[in-house]
Amino acid sequence: MHLVFDAFMKNHTSPNTLPLGHRINQSVSNLVSRLVHIEAFGGVVLILAAVVALIWANSPYAHGYHNFWGQTVAFQLGDFAMSNSLHFWVNDALMTVFFLVVGMEIRREIHDGALSDFRKASLPLVAAAGGVTIPALIYMALNMDPTLSSGWAVPTATDIAFAVGVLALLGKSIPSNVRILLLAVAIIDDIVAVLIIAFFYSGGLDYSGFWYVLLGVVMVIAWQRLGIASAYAYIIPGAVLWFGVFKTGAHPTLAGVALGLMTPVYARPLLEDPLTQVEKNMHRIREQSKSPETDEMVLLESIENIREAQREMLPPVARVQMQLHPWVSFIVMPVFALANAGVSFQGIDLSSGGAQTVMLGVILALVVGKPLGIFAACRLAVALRICQLPEGVSWSGVLLIGLLAGIGFTMSIFIGTLAFSDEALLGAAKLGVLSASLTAAIAGLSWGVLYTRRLRNN
Description:
About 70% of the residues lie in helices and about 5% in strands. A two-stranded antiparallel ribbon has the order 1-2. The protein is mainly α. It starts with a helix and ends with a helix. The mean pLDDT is about 85.
């Protein structure tokens, strides 16, 4: 046993002496790890998924696209059974994970971020208010018919991943406060979108579902009080909460937001400092390496103690969010785009039923209304001395934020699926979101290049 442990402790060598297969595997693993942590790459994957959906839905195999997402998926546990389309499970179940990350981001910002006090939050609050109100008014001005006006909230949301990803393409010359302000505005947009979904796009409430909601919340609190730190342990309470929200008639993805807001912002208290625990157990491992008789139980216990201490160095709201981020960026959101961006151009008749004004309203609201609302609201607030621009943020930077905020994509398409039951109107809204998001991204990049060039010259 000592020989095995000694080999384990000395299992390191120079890269050149590793077998070829090991070197290739290590290089690929390192490349994937770097790509996963690049924000812009997540946006690229999302775009590719949307393009694949568009091509698929307009190809000779279009019927396969719609049949695939329309096929029934059922879950049964004893006498309880749920049966719905695959499209439902993507939009109403899988997207709960996305909203969980959104809820955690909001929780962190409220705790010690841009929303932690009014002084920090005043400018992004004002900017977000303008960025939600003006687009909604522009859309409503073009779509006053009750059937069409239900889509007023489609152009109010900002896609955080896309917007930040496009900003990342402009390089490190962008002032950090511009990125922080964009994040804060996008997060507040998400809060508004969540509230809009809760109050305007949820059906009549079935109050019997609140018992399940209450049970789920109580279970989460009980788990936290018992000191259960494993995220996997919260899957069952989360499922109960999701089912309760679904049964009430509210959109079930709101359960993700609720769970995110309930995630602790402080690490679980331990009997000793995590760093001290790591050092002590590393010392025990070193002692075992020198011992002629290796105690497997001591070694295993030391490794487990180090893992526990490592986990508790970060609060759950940060740790779980970082763990879920790659899954959301590279699986949840691309799958959502694949399931929802497949707009069939042949199936959209823009000459009838108000589809043309729906599409035009969404495009103008996102491309023009977002930057206009954000810029004008900030200008007015600063002029009235309600707030001031952060250090390093010029009016050119505020305009850049406004242009990038016009990238609605994920949340806008999501709200569109709730706003329209008519396939023609839904298709027009989706086409408007896709066109507007692409236009906003190009406009933001173009202005960003001029902005960064001006910063370098100064």
